[in-house]
Specification:
The protein is 22% helix and 30% strand. With 230 residues, the chain is α+β, with helices and mostly antiparallel strands. It has a 7-stranded mixed sheet with strand order 1-2-3-7-6-5-4. Strands 11-10-9-8-12 form a 5-stranded antiparallel sheet. α2 crosses α3 (153-169) and α2 packs across α4.
């Protein structure tokens, strides 16, 4: 891989950040190069998909955002595969890129940017060293942790950046195979705003295929829940 496609340099580390994605977006808009990394020891106003918050106590989670210029079209899926690979063989992907272990969400990914300017920011929050007591009551039984020590965060970051480099540049066919191999929704009852059905795989454009009682639906984006989620 050519040096200008590597991730992680330059790096801005913040002891406390509102949102690493917000800071990375500011840097990208100001011209920061591909691979620029923002990390934080603590995040107070992080954002997840669908406007949710993603906060983390000091020193317990891997919190990072990286600038990707000239992003591939399936970048959200590539980010999910990279995180899952680092977490381990037990990690599954809840489309498009929530990472689950034993049915619990251990990582969240938010990809946002300015497509017209050909850059995006990939924000990742990975619960490396949280304890169950660190989660607010409404997330207990839904959020999970790797259960490692805090000193595992930096080594995990290095592995994650290497995995992101690989999967961002991977052929689409290989990426889609990797997503399908970890598809947490395959054969599972799911629902979304317009209906419900059963997960039936991932198509060649990275869309979720859902089989309903009367048709096959392909979802591009939006919120998909397991049928028994509240």
């Amino acid at each position: 891989m050519s040096g200008d496609r590597r991730l992680g340099r330059p790096r801005l580390h913040l002891r406390v950040a509102g949102s690493t994605n917000e800071r990375a977006r500011e840097l990208a808009a100001a011209g920061a190069p591909h691979g620029t990394l923002v990390t934080a020891g603590e995040q107070t106003a992080g954002r997840g998909r669908q406007g949710r918050t993603w906060a983390a106590p000091a020193g317990r989670a891997l919190l990072c955002s990286v600038i990707v210029r000239e992003p591939p079209r399936l970048l959200p899926l590539a980010a999910g595969v990279a995180v899952a690979k680092v977490v381990g063989d037990e990690a599954l992907l809840k489309w498009p890129n929530d990472v689950l272990v034993n049915g619990l969400k251990v990582a969240g990914i938010l990809v946002e940017g300015r497509p017209a300017e050909r850059w995006v920011v990939v924000g990742i929050g990975l619960n490396v060293a949280l304890a169950e007591s660190d989660f607010p009551p409404e997330l207990r039984g839904r959020a999970g942790t790797l259960g490692l020590r805090a000193d595992a965060i930096e080594p995990m970051l290095a592995k994650l950046l290497a995995a992101l480099e690989r999967w961002i540049e991977a052929p689409e066919a290989d990426l889609l195979d990797a997503v399908r191999a970890r598809d947490a929704l395959l054969g599972v009852s799911v629902r979304w705003a317009q209906g419900s059905g059963r997960g039936a795989g991932i198509d060649a454009d990275g869309r979720l295929i859902v089989a309903t009682a009367t048709a096959e639906v392909r979802l591009d984006a939006g919120e998909v829940h397991l049928q028994n989620d509240l």
